[in-house]
Design brief:
Two copies of one chain form a homodimer.
Chain A: H1 10-47, H2 51-62, E1 67-68, H3 69-75, H4 80-92, E2 96-100, E3 108-112, H5 114-135, H6 140-155
Antiparallel strand pairs in A: 1-3, 2-3
Helix pairs in contact in A: 1-5, 2-5, 3-4
Chain B binds a DNA duplex through helix 4.
Chain lengths: ~160, ~160
DNA sequence: CCGATTTACTTGATATTTGAAGCAAATGGC
DNA sequence: GCCATTTGCTTCAAATATCAAGTAAATCGG
């Protein structure tokens, strides 16, 4: 027979690590989902908007020169079809403007309108306060640690390129 | 006029904190969404399942005596209607069994079937390996810090009660 | 015990998201 | 330059999720 199971034989250890990672992921998922729900329902109630819409506007706000549809979908981590419908809705409301990219006949450049900028700024202020409130139970140390650990985690997915 | 703006006057400080919390939230959201996508597409490909289904089965696996519909929806953070349809589908596939709660005529108790337990165990093994792989870039210290910070964060939402 | 209220769940209409198929412009090899 | 392939976006059907309304059982106050 093989060695008697001690508390640190390789098999057991691996299992333990797996479980630990799983618990970590579960917690990450739960926290994010809970916050997401609070945020989304607040945006709905106060601004007749949603988190995906806010996210999209935020990306555009950061890119005054506009973004292509594809770039948008990559940044907000959603499908192209979804971006099409989000942008279409925002355009109907006059918050966003689409126009053909000058350098590529297939591409579309999306930009915030003046109204869109105003609207986003208002929302963003309320949004920041809400988020700050949700996170204010964390100590400065915890925040730093969280930020750093998530930064490391993100590397795994974004083999290179920008920060966010 | 008021005092000249130093780098630490209360207003500026508040703004800075708000922004910092926002960046933290953005990162949390991004990481979670990225992992979610990997996990979900893996579950789809390898097991013709999805993350919500996995989550639901996981809850039942932990509660051998079964759970009520309401308890399930609270745990997986989704609406009652959604749980009804998830459970209905899983029951059609024979992974789950519904029966009236003995002590309350309105309530339904959901339980894993033997097949459901087998199926979940298989999925869970693969799932754990995947997750462990995604998190293996984190040092032991980072994992602990992450787990702890998320624990603190969770308190904010679950004023009392169990851990997860 | 009775009616009013609350609780647990289901139903069905609506909204959102995905994923695959389609179209048009750009690119690359020849 | 021309055809094949790739890229950027849109469309539409199917899958999911939400929300509000409905049903039925339990609880509560008399």
């Amino acid at each position: 027979m093989t060695a008697p199971a001690t508390t640190t034989d390789p098999e057991t250890r691996l299992d333990r690590d797996d479980h630990e990672a799983l618990r970590l992921w579960l917690r990450l998922f739960t926290c994010t989902t809970m916050i997401e729900r609070v945020v989304d329902s607040t945006l709905r109630r106060d601004f007749a908007s949603t988190l995906p819409r806010f996210d999209l506007l935020a990306q555009l706000f950061r890119s005054p020169d506009g973004l292509r549809m594809g770039e948008l979908s990559a940044r907000i981590l959603t499908t192209g079809g979804n971006v099409t419908s989000l942008v279409a809705a925002l355009e109907r409301e006059g918050l966003v403007k689409r126009r053909p990219a000058p350098d590529d006949g297939r591409a579309t450049l999306v930009r915030l309108t003046a109204a869109g900028r105003r609207h986003f700024t208002t929302m963003a202020r309320a949004h920041e306060r809400l988020i700050a409130g949700l996170f204010d139970g964390l100590s400065a140390t915890e925040r730093r640690a969280l930020h750093a650990a998530l930064g490391t985690l993100k590397q795994r997915f974004r083999p290179s390129r920008d920060t966010r």
